[in-house]
Design brief:
Blueprint (H helix, E strand, L loop, with lengths): L3 H4 L3 E4 L12 H11 L2 E7 L6 E9 L9 E3 L17 E6 L2 E5 L7 E4 L4 E4 L3 E3 L18 H49 L1
Antiparallel strand pairs: 1-2, 1-9, 2-3, 3-7, 3-8, 4-7, 5-6
Length: 196
């Protein structure tokens, strides 16, 4: 069983084909492993009903972005018109010849997190991405630009979509009702004309 605190918010990459155990390569995994090999992934947490599986979102560079997909920028990418920007967690610094040096973790510039699609992947297929100091790369757990803000944003977005689809269904039902009433009026008018 996976401890969620050990994987949440960390950035992983897919292992090389030679490092993956053949027992793990099911048809489901073969279906999406190619897409995951192309990008880093952000782990959102464990999957409750599947042992050793985690839920991930892909991280892509700006030249890999596709139309009609939802993305959020990762710092240092400018926020521009995006509602939030995800921030990587900075590690503690160290003394370098009597000067305090802060260690800043960063990915390639112009990096985005795809938030409209998640995958359930075995943690055994992934390896942690580390920075130049050997520290695991991860996003902040709380505060501005952290995992909590990302989850809240995705939850609110999903709720807005559900309420929008409910409103759209209500409008469609109302239109059908109006068409039905017009059809009934037309039938009634036709029956009155036939009687005369």
């Amino acid at each position: 069983m996976i401890d969620p605190g050990q994987v949440e918010g960390k950035i992983y990459r897919c292992k090389f084909w030679g490092d993956i155990d053949e027992k793990l390569m099911t048809e489901e995994i073969r279906g999406y492993i190619y897409r995951l090999r192309q990008a880093h992934v952000l782990c959102l947490g464990d999957v409750r009903d599947r042992e050793d599986f985690v839920k991930v979102m892909t991280i892509k560079a700006s030249w890999e972005l596709e139309e009609n997909q939802e993305y959020l920028p990762l710092l240092p990418t400018p926020k521009d018109s995006y509602p939030i920007r995800i921030r990587l967690r900075n590690k503690l610094g160290c003394y370098d010849y009597t000067h305090w040096v802060r260690r800043y973790a960063h990915l390639a510039p112009q990096t985005y997190l795809r938030i409209d699609e998640t995958y359930e992947v075995s943690i055994l297929l992934l390896e942690e991405l580390v920075d130049q100091y050997g520290c695991a790369m991860q996003i902040k757990a709380r505060h501005h630009g952290g995992l909590a803000e990302l989850r809240d944003y995705v939850r609110r977005r999903d709720q807005a979509r559900v309420s929008e689809s409910v409103g759209q269904r209500a409008r469609q039902d109302q239109e059908r009702e109006e068409i039905f009433i017009k059809a009934m009026d037309a039938i009634e008018t036709l029956s009155v004309i036939q009687e005369n």
